[in-house]
Amino acid sequence: MSELSASSMTFTARPEHKPFFSAKFFCKFIGSVFMMSAIGLWFAPGSSNMADVLLLKTGLTGILTICAMVAFLSRN
Q1: pTM (2 decimals)?
Q2: Residues ≥6 apart with Cβ < 8 Å to 38
Q3: To pair with 43 at 20 to 30 A between CA atoms, which of 1, 19, 62, 74?
Q4: Residue 11: C-alpha distances to residues 2, 6, 7, 16 (Å)
Q5: Cα(31)–Cα(68) distance, rounded to whole angstroms?
Q6: Which distant-in-sequence residues (6+ apart) come within 8 Å of 27 by Cβ?
Q7: How many Å apart are CA 74 and CA 23, to the nearest integer?
């Protein structure tokens, strides 16, 4: 029988596993999508210029812009 001692055991450190997408990249991507969506509401072909639709588009643009700013400025 062989004896097991602390000196015979070796430990090899595994390299740190990095995720494919970082949280910072994900936030920047989502912020970009929100900004493109907010701009696209106004430049989409066939978009209506009626008063009730303009109010809806203005509100949605504001919400998407705020969400994009939060995503861009997150400190992950």
Answers
A1: 0.62
A2: 60, 61, 64, 65, 68
A3: 74
A4: 19, 11, 11, 15
A5: 4
A6: 71, 72, 74, 76
A7: 10
pLDDT in tens, 5-59: 656 566 666 677 777 778 888 888 999 999 998 888 888 877 777 888 888 889 9
Give CA–CA dist 35/16, Å, rounded.
34
CB neighbour class for 51 (10 Å; exposed up to 12, middle 13-18, buried from 19): exposed
Residue 4 has pLDDT above 60, yes or no: no
